[in-house]
Amino acid sequence: MPGIRAKLLGFLLPLVFILVATVAAAVMRITDAAIQRDLLQRGVAISRIVAFSAGYSLLSGDRLALDSLAAETGKSSSDIEFVAVRDTGNIIVAHSRVEERGKTYDSPDRSSLLGSFLETRADEVSREGHSMFEFTTPVIFAGKRVGTASVALSQESLLLAQRGVERSVLITASIILGIALLGTLALASLITTPVKKLSAGVNELAGGQTFHPIPVRGRDELGDLTRNFNRMAETIIAQQDRLSGYAKDLEEAYVGMVRVIAASIDARDPYTLGHSTRVARISCQLGRRLGFSEEELEHLDKACLFHDVGKIRTPDDILLKKQSLTQHEYVEIRTHAADGAEILNMAPSLKRYVPVVRAHHEWYDGNGYPDGKRDSEIPVHAQIIALVDAFDAMTSTRPYRKGLSPAEAVEEILRFRGTQFSPMLTDALVEMVKEMPQQETAEWKGMAL
Ligand SMILES: [Fe+2]
Fold first, then answer.
1. Which of 131, 234, 291, 338 has the lowest CB atom count within 10 Å?
2. Strand partners, 127
3. CA 222–ligand 1 middle distance (angstroms)
4. 115 within 8 A of 122, measured Cβ to Cβ
């Protein structure tokens, strides 16, 4: 799509070119005509002077005077081809070229009448392949025709003069075209620069980048447009800030609500109270050992807090059941992973936790739920939560069993290394538990300890 600059150039330049070419052609035509008219007038004048001067000498037979007249006139200008005086018998009695004297005057090879000026006739003639203008004036003396005077002027001088004019006109036209090109570019730039700045401003606004007010230059329509655009952009940015403030408040409220839900779920069962918080703490310690960045650890922390949020949909009689679950109850409680993902999916800022929460009961060997994912298909945060979730459950005391010590829990977890849990993560957890002082690992144990 051609820009404004190209369109202006495409429109204005041909227009200027046509205008300049038309003016140049007219100037050349007028000048050529003026040069030719000048040449004709000069030729007629010389021819008439020769005819006037030759009258008496021709009648009196003064050959010397006639020769002198022809020779002197022939030398008076470089573009005079010849000067000849002939008698009424058409015999050349005087000629600027001496060898022509006494010969019969030959008619030219080709002749076309240019015009008659009183008794003088002007023809464009060709002699021996050479084009020239020939001016013929009858020599009259005492009212009687006594001969004819002919003066020929070279066409070269006319062509040279015309070429000179053409060159000048072409140079002037080129300069005008060059100025027009520069003028058009300057005009295009005058229009396109503010438009480009406006376009860049729109892109900044659309791309959510920091908006820089566009400098307003001039009080013309473009200046008004720029001023109005800046005002509009400021209004949009203010509205955006207000909206993002509302959105942030809403998000925080939603996150807070999910935290409350997570804590409430833990609190529904006195034996799991604080479970999500402990899972978060241990998972982040493990993540730190694995070299996670602070941002990753923050995400892991939140995912741990949210991981069992789906249990809000699990009825108390299943969640708090002391006895073994029936097949149906077991199927129902397993839906909490997908339910949690669905709940988090409702808040845009929590969407990033959806895959982790959904996959926190997947097994390394693909025998977990809800999707049967395996190995690297399971997000690494979900693999960590699965491991630490089990560790915390083992170390928590339940009504029907006493919690295991961290060392015992580690032994138990090692039995599922490579099946339920990632071998690499299992090894990292085992190593971490072994390295931790006894007192610290005791803090990891469930609340009943
Ligand atoms: Fe769970």
1. 291
2. 130
3. 62
4. yes
Q: Which CATH number belongs to the domain containing residue 263 in this structure?
A: 1.10.3210.10
Q: What is the pLDDT of residues 379-418, one digit of tens each?
A: 999 999 999 999 998 988 776 678 888 888 999 999 999 9
- Token pair, residue 62, equals 């003064």
| pTM listed for this prediction | 0.48
291 and 143 part of one domain = no
Question: What's the 291 CA to ligand 1 centre distance in angstroms?
Answer: 25
Q: Which two tokens stand for residue 109?
A: 């090879």
- 315 Cα–ligand 1 center, Å: 15
Cα 252 to Cα 258: distance, rounded to the nearest angstrom: 10
CA gap 121, 347 in Å, rounded = 106
- The answer to whether the CB of 4 falls within 8 A of the CB of 191 is yes
CA–centroid distance, 104 to ligand 1, in Å, is: 133
Structure tokens given for 9: 């150039």
**In terms of Cα–Cα distance, which of 419, 439, 391 is closest to 283?**
391
Q: Is residue 62 part of a domain?
A: yes
| Same-domain check for residues 26 and 139 | yes
Q: How far is the CA of 327 from the centre of ligand 1 (A)?
A: 17
**Which tens digit of pLDDT belongs to each residue from 297-338?**
989 998 998 899 898 888 888 888 878 889 999 999 999 999
- DSSP β-ladder status, 92-95 and 80-87: antiparallel
Number of domains in the chain: 2
The range of the structural domain enclosing residue 101 comes to 4-165
Measured in Å, residue 251 CA sits from the centre of ligand 1 at 24
